[in-house]
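Protein folding task:
====================
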Amino acid sequence: MKMKYSILLLLGCLVGLASCDKVGLQEYRADVTYVCFTKSALQDTMFLSFKVYDKDTVTIPVPVKRMGKYSTEDMEYEMEADMSLTTLPQEYYRVPEKCIFDKCVETDTFYVQLYNYDELQDSSRLLVLKLKPSELIQEGLMENRRYIISATDRLVRPTWWTELNGGHNGNYFFNIAEQYYLGKYSEKKYSIFLQALQEDGVTFDGKDLSVLRIYSLRVKLPPFWLPNLICGGIPKDTKKPTNSQYFMYELVG
């Protein structure tokens, strides 16, 4: 609960700053390159559970974009933790000293490492990233200036099961995992899904929907669906649901 309030407080600060940006208090210079994260901190927090990865060191990709002065040469930039907002101890994460934007591209990805430790078994900690500005490389869009990672060793609802990523015509208003594959989130349901992944040595980060499709169906087939599913109006002696019946089953939890 404390972590929830911490994130809400952080987002409240960003809302206030973004409001200032929109009324024209920020000016952009033609000789400066502006770098920010691809997603708004007001909408996206990256939730990391070491339980999902089943290892104590996890590497997280962080996408960024640039605008302003166009460069035909590789551009070096630096990222750092925002120490006023980060609650994860410094010894349990690593941010690269130097990052490189390849020439003639508008987006880049750098990688941070997070390390598990005992306190995360019953709590969450924040790593908040930001650009380390220089004379000719400055922070971009106000609401995209921070990237929030919430780390824990508990099982928490993953980002790919919360974000609005389904819709049409560029309008996203539902979550694909919930709408089409796994239904509403529960810890038990997620545990069963992870068990199926781990048996094959597979991890799922939300990007490859074919993995979600395959393993969401697998948990509904023997040996998973018999002990873990309940029947919604289908006779109990039904040995295997048909395709049209899959969505009449819900995982217990």
